[in-house]
Amino acid sequence: MQTVGKEMSYTLRSDTRFINYRKNKASVGFSATYMGDSLTGGVKFEDKLTINKRGQLVVAGGAVIGRGDVAYGGSLEATLRDKDYPLGRFLSTIGLSVMDWHGDLALGWNAQSQIPIGRSTNLIGRFNLNNKGSGQVSVRLNSSEQLQIALAAFVPLVSKLLGYYQDRDSAY
């Protein structure tokens, strides 16, 4: 139970996993949500196949139904780890997602790579693109030891805030 605005939402979820082989894990789940005067239900499935200690393939799909409408979705994701996994921290993932609602097909592609730089620092790059022509590129530096990297990240933020306040003050 949770409140959404002034209404209460009641959600029931269930998920179960099947490990039919050592390298294959499948799961199935459902959910039902009652809010106001509408009932929404959904089902999902996922199959996670470990190819070797370096590779993994995940296939997922599902559907959501509510107020007579049905939306279908699915995804395919492949992950490649470092040859020295779990000691090595190199990781790359590519994925594809599909959603169909009222005949409107949405496709999404994404890629992510994590590259270790030193003993406790990772460089993570991410790329997303969809069939509507929008996307995102991001680069992130993650460190568990070097405080100066975190402090250096505040420089663009502080300069942007100072520029915002100077622009606002000059408008008055």
From TrEMBL:
Top-rank taxon, per record: Eukaryota
InterPro entries listed in its UniProt record: TOC159_MAD
Pfam family, one: TOC159_MAD
Residue ranges of every copy of the Translocase of chloroplast 159/132 membrane anchor domain listed in the record: 1-162
Protein name, entry field: Translocase of chloroplast 159/132 membrane anchor domain-containing protein
